[in-house]
Write a structure and sequence with these properties.
This protein is of the alpha+beta class. It is built from 32 helices and 30 strands.
């Protein structure tokens, strides 16, 4: 029994299934998590190790290399990149996608623990963090105060606001930037230390030993067990002042107060934050993995409003949300829902104009809500989220969802016109086109199924997109073969209804449209008669037309992602290493003031310093005004205006900063579109080649604001030990280094508890004089017998200039060059040109390698992945059609329509000024599945037998109907209803252009090919 017959005979059964799909789909839609992009498990883990006060060279040798040695042999590692800079080592470990990340993280944690045993004594333990592009701040909050200094403001933010935010359900972590935590300073006078013959390390160790509670065990007394502990924790500043830290000659005790002072202070300032010129603190709120971003943002805003109302009474503190991570999600999701709604409306209008019947339109259009909600149900089963990629897949599918139902309903309607009963027309009409309908659906599945299984990060990103399209068309196939026949049998109406006299304007329009269809059928019949008389000539004309349209591909730039058109971007400021934080802040404020003069700029936020403690860097986040307040300028045009203005501004700044405008990175990786890494076995070779390549890139117009990550090193002070003198005095080099480091950076010697909160105890020396190490004052360090000796007798202090940062990739020294792309520039062409630059610069310089990262790496991965997916899809499509037709020849004929669709898509992309990017290529891939639809309908009609021309003309109406329905559903995407959709217009344009050419050309291509094949078959049989 066929599905159509089952549905007609068991309407309650089919209706129950449909109602279940609708109900479960709606529940799934309301319960699915919402995010901007799919929550894909990216195979990247960062290993961060802090070693306060250490220079880049020391970080590399003492921290980075031991970690790299352990990580290198870890199973499943694809790439290891590291950055060693002042006080911090950051190692990015990329695993192969087939590696289970939970197990890999645990093994990596064990290797990091093994490496940490080799670290210097004061180095902190490594911390691991996975990278997830969807793990962006949900909210960024600016906190300021009229009377509080930054230390107290930071303390209030930690105690009050952070605690309030962490109570919100689904909040993952709360990050504070630009603050300065309070701590207790134990400031010792270096002269008093000298007179007392006390090294700083001895005092530090004494405080560590005497400032902690010690569990002393337990004992039994009268049948009860009692726990004993020694309470030594500091609870007041006087406790610290009165603590004995050493005994001198004559058993004289030295208290902390004898050697210096104890007072409240603040941690070393490493960052500052300003908003519109006012200094404050930024609080970033992150959600838990898989949580609904919009829901978390709404809950957080409610909590912030509550706290703000409490603060309003004092008028001292103010809290402001300066960046809402849910806004782009809301804007993009609203845009896609808007595109879906408009696409549905246009599609229904097209269907109504062709069918001329309200009932037929409802029967056909019911496939849209049924398929969309069914897709949401399957999305929930597979653990997908409501995001841009899944909604975009559904938006593209709108025009496809009615295709099968159109073909079925149109054929049923013809049977009714021929006099069949409603039941017989429904069953026979659906069965006649069952093969064509299944073939059309199989063609789309064959092309989009492989997209769901692409390799690499690109594949992970588009997995939900490809599979969501498959979900929707599978449900639409069920609707066409079961629901449409059932409704046609019991609610289809009479065939004569369409021929009734029409009096209202809508009916008049339908009648005029029907006459237009009849004229088109007559025109097509005459044109096809001429075409098949000289089929080879007709095929030649189609071939030449297709080649001519596709030739513009050589003029079309290619890239991974289209140019960003969001209303935020950043200005990155970098000064030479060694500058003070205040200098960086001064320069950043000067540049921000210039940027604020641009009329389209709404507000600015300055962050001086970063998470890596680079105080010579600053970032200025620029928020633009709304589209109506920009004088018609797009965000990319405003960025170019700011870039040109800053090129003139920077020339007058004495500090000679490096400034570039960076577009918003929607991928979340934090990288610029162009990212080149030069590698060599030693740093000098890598630097030489990188400088030569950078010199050429600076004059290359397609790359904007190039930056080389190679800055003059900062001054470093090295202690050069005399091994003989050190041996005589019993000085350990490590101990000597720690003593000097304590004098410069201070040493954490414990924790201080006050009002339920703990603060760091930092031991430091009072020595405000510059170049203290050049004076004749003793620098006492404990020797191997713990006796104080003068370090100067066994060491020299030498100033050197070392590198500001050392980068390595797969254990090779590397230098990075980054840049943005000029408007209209193609990344594919850029990579070819830069490859030539590198080959030329590397000649005669040894073994030099270069790799691309970020969008550049993703572009190469995309090209390979999309090529593989297309090839696999075409092979699968050929085999599926051959299996359905039981003929390799008929299957091959269908594939001849694909170049015609691609040529139109390429021409439309070029004509509109778009680039060949991941979105437009997805549109082309969709065409490969859709383009065969027309040829399948023609081949299937001819395959049934009868006159060739009659068979083709019979299929003209469903071909035009399904093609126009697809174009109607895609039109909102191609137009770009607002700025949120600007990046995706290339996808819609490709589909529109390809659908036009594939529809027009295929109507003549398939009949001509069938004519040639028929004549060849006759000639072969007559041999």
């Amino acid at each position: 029994m066929s599905i159509a017959k089952l549905s007609v005979n068991r309407p309650i059964f089919i209706s129950s299934i449909v109602l279940l799909i609708l109900f479960a789909g709606w529940r799934s839609l309301t319960s699915l998590p919402v995010s901007l992009f799919p929550d894909t498990p990216m195979p990247w883990i960062a290993v961060t190790t802090v070693y306060p006060g250490a220079g880049p060279s020391e970080i590399e040798s003492a921290i980075t290399q031991p970690l790299e040695d352990e990580i290198a042999s870890l199973e499943g590692v694809k790439k290891v990149s590291s950055t060693s800079q002042e006080s911090v080592s950051v190692i990015w470990v990329e695993f192969h996608l087939d590696v289970a990340l939970d197990g890999a993280e645990q093994r990596l944690r064990e290797r990091a623990a093994q490496a940490s045993a080799k670290f210097p004594r004061d180095a902190e333990l490594p911390t691991l963090e996975r990278f997830n592009p969807s793990n962006q701040p949900v909210l960024s909050i600016f906190v300021k105060s009229k009377s509080m200094d930054r230390v107290n403001l930071t303390d209030w933010t930690e105690r009050e606001l952070r605690v309030a935010l962490t109570r919100i359900p689904k909040v993952g972590r709360v990050e504070i930037l630009g603050g300065q935590k309070p701590e207790v300073w134990i400031s010792l006078d270096s002269k008093r230390l000298g007179l007392a013959r006390l090294p700083l390390l001895q005092v530090a160790q004494s405080l560590k030993d005497s400032g902690s509670n010690v569990p002393a065990g337990s004992f039994t007394n009268g049948g009860n067990e009692t726990t004993l502990s020694s309470i030594a924790q500091f609870t007041s500043l006087d406790d610290v002042r009165n603590r004995v830290v050493a005994f001198g000659s004559g058993e004289r005790s030295f208290h902390v107060s004898d050697l210096g002072t104890v007072e409240w202070g603040a941690e070393k300032e490493r960052s500052q934050v300003f908003r519109n010129g006012v200094q404050g603190i930024i609080v970033n709120l992150y959600k838990q993995s898989g949580a609904n971003t919009i829901q978390v943002a709404d809950l957080a805003r409610a909590e912030i409003d509550k706290v703000s109302q409490e603060l309003t009474q004092s008028g001292d503190l103010s809290i402001e949300v300066i960046q809402d991570g849910s806004k782009p999600i809301r804007d993009n999701i609203f845009d896609v829902w808007e595109s879906i709604a408009l696409g549905i409306l246009l599609t229904i209008i097209v269907v109504y104009l062709f069918l001329g019947s309200f009932r037929s339109t409802v029967i056909t259009g019911f496939a849209i809500p049924n398929s969309l909600l069914g897709a949401f149900l399957l999305m929930a089963v597979f653990g997908f989220s409501v995001n841009i990629m899944t909604l975009l897949a559904l938006s593209l599918s709108v025009g496809l969802l009615v295709d099968d139902a159109i073909v079925v309903r149109e054929n049923i309607f013809k049977h009714r016109e021929a006099g069949s009963s409603a039941r017989d027309a429904a069953i026979n009409g659906a069965n006649e086109v069952a093969l064509a309908v299944v073939a059309v659906t199989a063609a789309i599945l064959a092309m989009f199924g492989p997209v769901g299984f692409l390799k690499g990060v690109t594949g992970q990103f588009f997995r939900e997109f490809g599979l969501t399209v498959c979900f929707a068309v599978l449900v639409s196939l069920f609707d066409a073969m079961a629901v449409a026949p059932m409704l046609s049998a019991y609610w289809g109406g009479h065939a004569a209804l369409i021929h009734q006299k029409r009096t209202n304007p809508i009916q008049w329009l339908v009648r005029r449209f029907e006459k237009l269809q009849n004229r088109l059928e007559d025109l097509y019949r005459r044109a096809l008669s001429l075409a098949i008389q000289s089929p080879w000539k007709s095929l030649g004309i189609l071939f030449i037309a297709s080649i001519s349209l596709a030739s513009v591909v050589t003029k079309t730039p290619s890239s991974f992602l289209p140019t960003d058109q969001s209303d935020t971007f950043s200005v990155q400021v970098t000064l030479n290493p060694g500058v003070a934080l205040s200098t960086t802040a001064k320069v950043a404020k000067h540049i921000a003031a210039k940027v604020s003069e641009v009329p389209s700029v709404d507000h600015l936020t300055i962050q001086v310093g970063n998470a890596s403690q680079e105080i010579n860097r600053a970032s200025i986040l620029v928020k633009l005004k709304g589209p109506s307040d920009r004088s018609g300028k797009s965000p990319s045009e405003i960025r170019e205006q700011v870039r040109e203005m800053l090129n003139l501004t920077v020339k007058g700044v004495p500090e000679n900063p490096e400034v570039y405008v960076s577009q918003n990175d929607i991928s979340g990786s934090g990288m610029r579109p162009f990212n080149l890494v030069i590698q060599a076995k030693n740093l000098r070779q890598a630097e030489e080649v990188a400088r030569a390549v950078y010199a050429k890139i600076q004059s290359y117009d397609n790359l904007v604001s190039p930056v080389i990550e190679l800055k003059p090193g900062s001054k470093q002070l090295q202690i050069q030990m005399d091994s003989k003198g050190a041996g005589l005095l019993g000085i350990n080099p490590v101990t000597a280094g720690l003593e000097v480091r304590g004098r410069l950076e201070g040493l954490k010697v414990g924790r201080f508890r006050s009002e339920g909160k703990e603060y760091d105890l930092r031991l430091k020396t009072l020595d405000p004089a510059r170049n203290w190490y050049k004076r004749d004052q003793e620098i006492l360090v404990p020797n191997l017998n713990f006796n104080p000796v003068d370090l100067r007798k066994a060491a020299q202090f030498v100033e050197v200039v070392g590198p500001s940062r050392i980068e390595r990739l797969n254990r090779l020294y590397s230098v990075r060059i980054t840049a943005d792309l000029a408007d209209g520039a193609g990344l594919g062409e850029i990579l070819k040109v830069v490859d030539g630059y590198v080959r030329e610069a590397a000649q005669g310089r040894g073994d030099i390698k270069h790799v691309y990262e970020g969008d550049s790496e993703s572009y190469e991965e995309m090209s390979e992945s999309m090529g593989t997916a297309t090839l696999f899809g075409l092979v699968l499509l050929f085999l599926v059609l051959a299996s359905l037709y039981e003929s390799f020849l008929l299957s091959a004929l269908n594939l001849f329509s694909l170049p015609l669709a691609i040529s139109g898509a390429l021409f439309a992309i070029w004509l509109k000024g778009e680039t060949l990017n991941i979105y437009s290529l997805i549109g082309v891939l969709l065409l490969l599945g859709v383009a065969t639809k027309n040829s399948i309908l023609l081949v299937e009609s001819v395959h049934e037998g009868g006159n060739l021309i009659h068979a083709c003309v019979k299929r003209l109406r469903p071909i035009l109907m399904t093609s126009l329905a697809l174009m109607a559903g895609t039109l909102p995407i191609a137009i770009g209803l607002n700025e949120a959709s600007a990046q995706r217009t290339g996808m819609g344009i490709a589909i529109l252009g390809g659908t036009i050419t594939s529809t027009l050309f295929t109507l003549f291509l398939i009949p001509c090919l069938l004519t040639v094949a028929g004549r060849a078959k006759i000639a072969w049989s007559n041999r």
